[in-house]
Specification:
This protein is mainly alpha-helical and 225 residues long. The chain has 7 helices and no strands. Helix 5 (114-176) runs antiparallel to helix 6.
Amino acid sequence: MKISKLFYLHLFFWIIYVTGAVLVPYFVFHSKNTIFNITFFITSITCFYVNYFIVVPKFFDADKLYKSFFAFFLSVAAFVMVRYFAEEMFLPQFFGIRNYEKGISFVFYFFDNIFYSSTTIFISTTFWFFKYSIKAEQEKSELIEARKTAELQALKTQINPHFIFNSLNNIYSLVYQKSDTALPALEELSQLLRYSTKDLEKDFISLDKEIGYIDSLKKKKKLRI
């Protein structure tokens, strides 16, 4: 699963979230608390992504889990405070409405909202760890691939000089003997070098080129290069 597909996971989650928190209460149950459902959704999505993009990446430390727990409770507390500000301070001040009865204590409000805030932050944190695991797996695969490439390059560096030295000596011998096979031998060596220096660097090599390489090796053997 690629990281780009996480977008669809987030989109699916928020579609379900909005449907359950806003649309169903309004259209099915004809709820009169739509404004509070909307403020709850805005608070949720804001705290969700603040936690997702800032809090968890900053505080996560596999060797110091207490920092992760601290970050979790920090985000939960922030969620409750943002919702409290919106529903018990902003809306009463400017629109004359509130979600709870006037005079309710913040402590009661906090514990009454602990479930909703914890659930949202927990899902946000889970999504981040999911993204983190995908990224770590991709980096591991890229590292393995880079290591294989480096090993191949090192092998080519070791083999090619020896191969070229022997081949040139053999061609020199053919030229010295004025053999008619000298030019074909030089041509086959050119084909082999082109394959080893250019074609092997590509991710994919066509079957025709592979067959051509095998033919060159056969001709090389016949010409005793």
